[in-house]
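Reopening this one. Same input as before:
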Amino acid sequence: MNLNSIPSLQDNYIWTLNDNTGNCLIIDPGEAQPVLEKIYTNGWKLAAIFLTHHHYDHVNGVNKLLEKFPDTVVYGPEETKDKGATLIVGEKDTVSVLDLNFSVLHTPGHTLEHISYYSPPYLFCGDTMFSGGCGRLIEGTAEQMYKSFQKINRLPDDTLICCAHEYSLPNLEFASAILPYDSQIKAAYLKTKKLRAKNLISVPTKLAYERKINLFLRTQYSDLRKALDIELPVKYMWDIFAALRNKKDRF
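Same output, byte for byte:
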């Protein structure tokens, strides 16, 4: 399988997965034109489209793609049924594309019905987890997003976090401000800064790496609680997550 990303809009990535015969899977096409250019240039055959949630920068290209390829199955959560989804899927469903079986994970928080698609090692997680950060709580709650992160955190170390935005550098700037003496976060920040200075993509990253540098996966750490000035004991772990997300929103 060949994993690629197509830059889109301001900072989106439209992920593509291709087999050796030219069949391609498209994830969250926020616009159609760059996808069509790749399809025609490479001679790809569109096998399916995955949608993670209903926001415009993830679905706006669907209808135009369906105009060109009307038989394409578009998988998505209930909230995308009026955004071009032709087959609604949710938690515990399995989607078979490109001879791969994708488990559908309900990962709410950013939106209420947000889903992710997992077939080892690929996790297409939309706006749930980013490298070094998490999605904004636009519709959902900190409790929902915390539980979504815990669900993702149960996946294997080598899981590739294929998120939908290039947010790594600002996320790591925030993490560095919270834990300025953390050597792993500092190294990740410097590495990412060099990549972005060359206009190079910083994702996907592996889940094992995220466990080291993503503060939203480290809510159980005492140094983070101290930095957030949270008194112990804490009744709910997602309260720490909420405090961190609130601080990020104001950063």
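So the earlier flakiness isn't reproducible anymore. For the record, The chain has one domain: 2-249.
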